Amino acid sequence: MGQKINPLGFRLGATQGHHSVWFAQPKNYSEDLQEDQKIRDCIKNYVQKNLKISSNVEGIARIEIQKRIDLIQVIIYMGFPKLLIEERTRKIEELQFNVQKELNCVNRKLNIAITKIVNPYSHPNILAEFIAGQLKNRVSFRKAMKKAIELTEQAGTKGIQVQIAGRIDGKEIARVEWIREGRVPLQTIRAKIDYCSYAVRTIYGVLGIKIWIFVDEE
Fold first, then answer.
1. Cα–Cα separations (whole angstroms), residue 173 to 162, 167, 214
2. Mean pLDDT score, 139-154
3. What is the average pLDDT across 91-116?
4. Which residue in 72, 77, 173, 185 is a FRET match for 65, CA 20 to 30 A apart?
């Protein structure tokens, strides 16, 4: 049967780049990898804590990390940077301080920049957060999926596939439901496809959301 590979890793070097750019000796590699994970977790937690109650969407599309000998450069791509920018400098300084405390890096400078995304809903992570928020509020999953697809179509993408798995609508038996709109050519390496998988904790168990978005062909 057809085996699924992660579309991002499959396209590395063709249409996808790495989200972390640094070089490490083999014996330090694992430490650096864990450090990256710590930075990402710390930023996500901070954004979640400082969210306005009204919106469930964190709006972080991706976090890119570049490391040099004396500098860690973190770029946060956000769909709705209002969440952090309102008191911009203070919030970012606070975030930098938090991350530095988490890493306790003495001899390296940390630099955090925020970049705004033009069409937030053409990014699978932001879309997954939107669907997750809907599912937590007990909206029926089909409605949530259709709404998500509408949002991406407005953002001008060529195709999208959304899959939800687990105890959907609280049913006893877990199942997988999916829906596709437009074309999603997963076999074509030239096709730039964004992908994310996201876990939602609902009252009756964990649901998995997977989203493939076909952006364009190179």
1. 20, 6, 31
2. 92
3. 85
4. 185
> In terms of Cα–Cα distance, which of 18, 119, 130 is closest to 63?
18
- Tell me the residue type at 43: I
